[in-house]
Amino acid sequence: MQRRQLSQHLLELERQQKWHILVHGMDEISYVSQADGKLETVYSRLSNRNQSWIGFASLHPDGKRLTLVAKLYDQRSADLIVYDIESQKQKTILSMPYLFGPRWSPDGERIAFSGRSGATGSFDLNVYELRTAKVSTIVVGELPSGEGYFDWSPDGKKFIYENVGGYIQIIDAQTKENHALGKGGSPRWCPDGKQISYHKDGEDAVVLQNVESGQNRTILVAEKAGSPTWSPDGRYITYSRLYGEISKQLQDLSKLTDTHGDLWVMDTESGVEVKLFTGNESIYPTSWGPIGLTSRVSH
Predict the structure, then answer these.
(1) Which residue spans within 34-129 are E strands per DSSP?
(2) From the centroid of its chain, how far is CA 209?
(3) Cα dihedral sign, 211-212-214-216
(4) Which long-range contacts (CB under 8 A, 24 or more apart) does 129-133 make?
(5) I need a surface site. Which of 15, 64, 68, 289 has the fewest CB within 10 A?
(6) Are 87 and 72 in contact (CB under 8 A)?
(7) Which domains does the chain have, with CATH numbers?
(8) Strand, helix or coil at 46?
(9) Mean pLDDT of the chain
(10) Which helix (H) or strand (E) holds 11?
(11) 238-247, pLDDT tens digit by residue?
(12) What's residue 253's pLDDT?
């Protein structure tokens, strides 16, 4: 009964608030249509055969644009892209040799990303200001290579990030005051500003922690939750999980490298979980919010 009620409530939020979960697949960025029970493509690497790779996308607060990174086969640098969902036009605003995980600021006027110029070393956390086209560096040489290692605070004044040592850090973007919260990974800041989520260090679980008091609780224990992402109201968390049939049939899950094909949502207040979607490839949620919908080619 609780699962049925949660499913119905999530569907109502989709219909009334236009909230959709943006997910990353190997070749496409899509959103989940609960009403239709399928994925709707927003951006496809296959539409540009010269693209060898696309990264996680972030949804602009107004739901009309994406930011993502793409790389061309014949190009050494990666491109930071702003993509208009309605017109389907894209603009490259920055290129550099190594670039990952861009995320819109809460005010929609800046884009944060991790990057480096050299072939080796850790990554910087940078901010690109759209109005001036200027880049400022917030953190120097502390981030690992890859996606999902940082997030904005809801007021846009701070960042939470995972450093190469596996510690969760909070830094003030202006003063550069920095402090550690403990060990963990893939941090996300709840839209209410009071909580953060991160993968628990050394364990298959997710931690919800109060930023001020430090009090925390552990959820999603032993569920192989991938890329936990908050709903706009801060009540729900969506995440990918191992394919149900695979996880039942195979005992040595360490041999599986890319099997997060089930998309789930948890109500963090009640602990109730529901599965929204099972795909034919691994998918990872990256944003949750209103999306400027147009006719799309679906999976």
Answers:
(1) 38-44, 51-54, 58-59, 65-72, 78-84, 90-96, 98-104, 110-116, 123-129
(2) 18
(3) negative
(4) 130/82, 130/93, 133/93
(5) 15
(6) no
(7) 2-290 (2.120.10.30)
(8) helix
(9) 91
(10) helix 2-17
(11) 999 986 554 4
(12) 47
**What are the residues facing 98 on neighbouring strands?**
116
Side by side, the strands of the sheet bearing 123-129 are 98-104, 110-116, 123-129, 134-143
Handedness of CA 178, 181, 186, 188 (dihedral sign): negative
Q: What is the pLDDT of residue 50?
A: 84
Count of C-beta atoms within a 10 Å radius of residue 216: 16
pLDDT digits (tens, 9 = 90+) for 199-238: 999 999 999 999 989 899 999 999 889 999 999 999 999 9
Tell me the pairing of strands 134-143 and 158-162.
unpaired
Phi, psi of 255 (to 5 degrees): -80, -15
CB 279 within 8 Å of CB 243: no
pLDDT tops 90 at residue 297: no
DSSP code per residue over 140-156: EEEEPSSSS-EEE-TTS
Contact call for residues 253 and 23 (beta carbons, < 8 A): no
For the stretch 11-37, pLDDT in tens is: 999 999 999 999 999 899 999 999 998
- What is the phi-psi region of residue 185: left when phi exceeds 0, alpha when psi lies from -120 to 50, beta otherwise? beta
Give dist(CA 76, CA 138) in Å, integer: 25
Q: Which among 91, 92, 149 is positioned nearest to 116, based on CA atoms?
A: 149
Q: How many CB atoms lie within 10 A of CB 288?
A: 25
Identity of the amino acid at 282: S
Q: Is residue 259 within 8 Å of residue 282, measured between CB atoms? A: yes
